[in-house]
Amino acid sequence: MAQEGDLDAEETLVLRYQRQVRMCARPFFLAGGDSEDLIQEAMFGLIKAIREFDPNRDIRFRTFADVCIRNRIRSAITSALRGKHTPLNDSVPFESMMGESDSSPEELFISQEEREERMAQINHCLSPLEQRVFAMFLQGLSYQEISIQVGRSVKSVDNAVQRIRRKVAPYYGDISRS
Fold this sequence. Notes:
The chain is mainly α and 178 residues long. 65% of the residues lie in helices and 0% in strands.
C-alpha cells in the first residue's frame, strides 16, 4: 500500500521501524554535531526501502530496510569525508564496542579485553549520570526514552550525550576513516 502512494501506510511503516533506524544509527555519532542528523539520514534510507522493496524477492523487508538504512548512513559519512559537511568529518562509530567482527576466536578475545579496558577508561571519566545515559544510548534508546528512565529533561540528556562524545572521542580517535 505504501508503494502505491498510501501515505498512511508509509507513516505506519516509518513508525514501526523507527527503533531499527535508531539502532542502525547508534554505532555512529557526529563529534561536535547532532546525532539526530545521522538518524535523519537513516530515516531517508528507511523511506527508500519502503518505496523500493520487492516482495517477490526472497528477502524479508526488515533485512532489506537494514541494508538501505546502513548504506544511507555510510553514504552520508563518505560524503562528509569529502569535506562537504564539516561536522560529519569527525564521526566515530561505536561498532568496535558492539562486537561486530569477522575475526578469529583469539582476535575476538583480545579485542574483547581491549573493549573492556577502553570501557573502564571511559566510565572512569564519565559521571554516574553520563554512564547511565551512555549505556542506554548504546542500547538504542531515544533521548526521550532515556530522559524518562533517568528522570531528567530531554535537553539534559542531549547535553550529557554531547559531553560523552567529547570525552569518548580520545579513546576511539577517528575510526570512521579506517
